[in-house]
Amino acid sequence: MTTTVATSPSLHATRPTPAHLLLATMIAFIWGTNFVAIRWGLDYLPPFLFVALRFSVAALACLVLPRPNVSWRLMIAAGVVMLGGQFGFMFLAIHHGMPPGLASVLIQAQVPITILLAALLQRELPTSAQFGAMLLAVVGLVLIALDLNADVSLLAFFLMMGAAICWASGNQMVRAMGQVNAVALISWMSLFAVPPTLLLSLLFEDLPVIPETHGLAVAGFAIFYNAVISTWGGYGAWAWLLARYKAATVAPFALLVPVIGASTSALLLGETFDTARLAGMALLVLGVAGSVFGARRR
Description:
Blueprint: H1 18-42, H2 47-58, H3 72-95, H4 100-106, H5 110-121, H6 128-146, H7 154-177, H8 182-204, H9 213-242, H10 247-250, H11 256-269, H12 275-293
Helix pairs in contact: 1-4, 1-9, 1-11, 2-3, 2-8, 2-9, 3-7, 3-8, 4-11, 5-7, 6-12, 8-9
């Protein structure tokens, strides 16, 4: 998620301290391992209900955090699309067999899609470096799509692309809000992600059978990790760093997320990657990196 915080440019430090570098790495670790937590939770919870429970817990912060000074319409739309849409599609994709490691890479397609939407909607043309990086990312996506086999369906792939499009669309909405407190914003947006996902759960999902003690503990941990550790802790710490350093200093740490996501999924879930899929994933991540760093020069 693109986060903005109200701060003065003069307050931005140039070199992160070792402790702050460790904090940025820990945030990437939390967001990367969250994909494994999602997979564990989906063993006991249907996807839309899982999303609704995640954001119900995250929205509890609204009780103590003031509503950001943005229009209700824009905040509701961002909550529904960026949170409900993104994670609804993502959880559904993983439910339908998308491996968590591959999901952590495919969701990064939101970066070139965000740049494309900015060009179409705000006339912010990409730099030549960004354009080349976007092509590299597309080649990576095509390689991954062509390599899909029995373990990953084309449906799961397109659901992940739907998640990336929702994230990229939400980025445009958040940008339109201007400088706001990121932690308060994500909490209030969470509030509006609950009704549509809960309604979809009631319409299309059977009520889950209450699992045994172990399953209940796993489901509870997955909800806690997603709502408290990843949403409150991750975005809160990310906003704290953005208030102290330039975005160009902090943002590259997000590139560690797909690397950590794929690595932890391979380690904890036994996910494997053949040569073609690994090459596609590498090209996509390189394309995302080029899109981030390519913005610095025309």
